[in-house]
Design goal:
Layout (H helix, E strand, L loop, with lengths): L4 E6 L17 H14 L6 E6 L11 E4 L3 E3 L7 H10 L32
Length: 123
């Protein structure tokens, strides 16, 4: 395995007035930059990788981060939370509970399309 952990930081951008918000507008780019720097300073950049991610479909929790292979989702992350995530979770193995969000909320039952209209051909 090349990296023991991947930290995906959402940097997706939507219009500022979008009802779900967007992680870029919540500081996603700055968080990614600082995360990468903090890993490098701790000499963890060879074993842990902080990546930009497009939409993680957790926009309402922005800025959103997911850590794999742990499948731990964080929301409302700020620059001030980075050191705690690194020290407690990535190094210490204890996720930061106050920042955790539910795993992806999609369920096939809630995402089924509405019943199709009757499109019977009458020609």
């Amino acid at each position: 395995m090349r990296y023991s952990k991947h930290i995906f930081i959402c940097t997706n951008e939507r219009p500022p007035d979008h009802p779900r918000g967007s992680c870029k507008n919540c500081g996603g780019e700055e968080i990614r930059t600082q995360f990468k720097q903090a890993l490098k300073e701790r000499r963890l950049h060879g074993t842990m990788r902080a990546n930009s991610a497009s939409c993680l479909d957790a926009c309402e929790y922005g800025a959103a981060i997911v850590v794999y292979p742990d499948n731990v989702w964080y929301g409302g992350v700020t620059l001030g939370d980075i050191d705690e995530i690194i020290e407690s979770h990535l190094i210490g193995g204890q996720p930061v509970q106050r920042l955790r969000i539910p795993n992806k909320r999609y369920t096939p039952e809630t995402e089924l399309p509405l019943e199709a209209e009757d499109v019977t051909n009458t020609d």
